Every structure is written in C-alpha cells, then in structure tokens.
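Protein in question kept in full:
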Amino acid sequence: MKKIALIILAVFAALFVVITLSKREPAKEAAKEQANSATAIEKEKVVRFWKIFRKATDYRMNEQWSLAAENYRQALELNSRHEDALYYLGNMYLELSQFREAEACWKKLVEVNPKNSRGSRQLTNLYLNSDELFDIDKAEAACRECIRINKEESGPMLSMGEIMLIRGRLDEAAADFAAVTVSNFKSTGAYFLGGYVAWKKGEKAKAREMFGLAVKFAKPEEHKAGKVIGEGDTKGFGNVTSKSIFREYIAALSRVRPEEMEPALEKSYRKLDARLTELKRKVH
C-alpha cells in the first residue's frame, strides 16, 4: 500500500510540474513578445529621430533658421538629451534673436554633459554679446569653465581677454591676448585688442605693430583653385561661432589701406575706448 501511495504522489507531483510549466510557457512567450514590441518601437523612434535631425541639418546648412529650429525641437522630443541637437537648436535661437531660448538649450547641454565645452563656449558668447542677457560675471564663469575643459582652444582665451578688458584689468587682458597669438598667430582679434592695450598705456610703437598685424590678418586670403575646404569651413553657422563683442571694429580692419594705417589706428582705438567706457558702466 505504501508503494502504491508513493507512486500516486509521484504522479501528482509530475502532473503539478507539467501544469505549472504549461502555465509559465505562455507567460514567457507574452513577455518575449512584449520585449520584442518595445525594441521595435525604440528602433522606430531612433529612425525617426535621425530622419528629423538630418532634415534640421539641411535647413541649417541652407540658413533656414526657423525651419531648422522647428526640426531640432521635434528631434529633441524623441531624444531630449541629444547633445548636437541641443547645441544646434541653441544656435538657431541665437540666429533668430531668441536669446533666452538659446540660453536654456546650452544650459541643458552643460547639464547633460558637463565635459562638453561647446555649451559653456556659447553661454560665454551669449552673456557677452546679448544686450538683453549681458552679464559679465556669468560670462566669466562660463568662460573659465570652458578653458578648464579645453585648454587648447584659443577662442575662450580671447573671450577671457575681452572680459578682462571690460573689467579694466589691462595687464591680465594683454596676457590673455598674447597667449592667444601663441596658439593662433593669425588671430586678428587678439592683435587688435592687444594693440588697444598698448595704445591705452601709451606704448605707441607696440600699438602700431599689433594694429598692423591685425589689419594684415583681417584681409581675406585668396582661395587656391582646387583647394579642399577644411572640416571647420562649413556653411550655415551664420554669426554664432567665434562671436566677439567688438566684432564691428575688427570687421572694419579689412578695409584699411596701407596709407591710412596711422589715422585708422587712432580712429579705431578711440571708438573702442568709448565703447569700453559704456560697457564698464554696466559692470560697476
């Protein structure tokens, strides 16, 4: 009897296992199907993101800022942390003079990736160049962060020199401009502004030398036939990269003729001096 009872128990145990496994099998299949469905949705989302992002890039390259901005916004709805989309949407807002929207994009970029210096770089430009958001303290903080992340780039150092110039710290500004010309010997802005510091200190010979170099490098270079355009020479960036608060004075240098050098120097630096006086009122 005991043997029969054991056999019956074994049969029931086996049946229990079979029933349990049969119940689990559909659940496994359902979970697998659900996972496959989620993967398919995610893949479709990625495909849609890149389709919209490429369209936004095409609009940007053709300087259609509003359409580019709209498509970058749509792309970010699919991936809110995409660094390039945040960076370029900020650039498009800057082109459209929507400064607060640009600021929000670059702040988010810095939050997403604190090691991405592009966000800090554009915030520096924004706080220096926008009348609406001009803030020398925020500009300096963003610029120092940018320099900390990327010490090799000369642009942030030029901006730091401009910040020191606005603060009236001429020696520090001169050191920054000199550092720029070491890594970028064709920096028109560094020579021009460094020349202003020399002019302000009464160092006329040095001012003439640096002004002359600024004029020389401000002249557009002739493109040789068949020259391959460099990676950075892309269309569609407008005025959003390497933007200087003193760009109007720097841009005028390309029109200076050799025989006008001396009067042009005096005129340029007197105008710049007046502009700096205005800016210092905003700072103090």
Q: What stands out?
A: The chain has twelve helices and no strands. Residues 17 and 23 are 10 Å apart (CA to CA).
